[in-house]
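Fold it.
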Amino acid sequence: MTGFAKASVRDADVDGKRVLVRGDLNVPLEDGKITDDARIRAVLPTLELLRERGAATLVCSHLGRPEGKDPALSLRPVADRLGELLGAEFPLAPGLVGDEVATVAETLGSGDVLMLENSRFEPGETKNDPELAKGLAALADLYVNDAFGSSHRAHATTEGVAHELPACAGLLLERELSELGRVRDDPKRPLVIVLGGAKVSDKVGVIDRFLGFAEEILIGGAMCFSVFKAEGRDTGDSLVEDEGVEAAKRVLADAERSDTLLELPEDLVLGRELSPKTQVQELNGVDVPEGWMGLDIGANTAANYAKRIARAGTVFWNGPMGAFELDPFAAGTRRVAEAVAEAPGHTVVGGGDSGAALAEFGLADRVDWLSTGGGASLEFVEGRKLPGLEAIPDA
């Protein structure tokens, strides 16, 4: 399997054992209700496999960024939803570690499941505290990482505990590495990379990785204004990442020496301010006048990008083309999303805001793979080592 060479839960002997599964169940909540359960559904195959094979399964995850134990960020709604989807009782432990949790864990039998409380209620989680990792390890016989979206963080539940127990990858993690590995290492040609979002600094590593490897890199989103600034163009009131301008200058120079086409927008949609009710203007060009900000790629750019995506053998998309959450500035991202959904080639979308855009436009099930990790997918395809993955032994 391209991009995957780690020990897998498929090959683990789990019958009669307690298995700790790290999922990325950081789902959006509104008034205590889950508004999108995609990340919960993504971990189901691993949990179902473990139950079928006679394991007692403990599930841990973070949720949000709590400062201490915040009842509003309890994993209770997640446990309830998992129980509904699995058709099983899914109790919530009183914490992540400790004597009370251990007592509950010891009562689990084959096929039983237990949700541990929000890992970030423990200050040692993000500090990768060795004692917290040891406390987690004491609860189980085996560790399964199925949290690709959190594996670029060296936390106690993603990296620390993997050194304390026999560790392997879950089915979701396995699929993530396979799909993203195909993009990174063995894509069907031509390879088209589509990058958007706010910051050049977030994407420069990916651009560096694919200049000279991909056939085309298409740039949109607010990050293009740092590139335009590097070219000496007027950017008006558009969002410009000052520290990204120097990086953009280097990228432009590297692109000139590369066989890869680095494509920038040729027209824009402007607004006076970031608001759905703002005055809107279409600009045939990219020099933004004072008092205006670029908030979407224009129709000509969107059509050009769509044609290039349609010809691709492999497409990787990460980052929206504009402020798609505001209706006047959604058209560029929508056209790109539709093109990716319609493309005959292998299509991989790098989670985060791109995934949110696909969901918004009803296209999430029209791509070959929608990653559960925005930042993690970027780091993986650019070739960086992810601590959570490095801690899992090779197959």
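The first strand starts at residue 18 and ends at 23.
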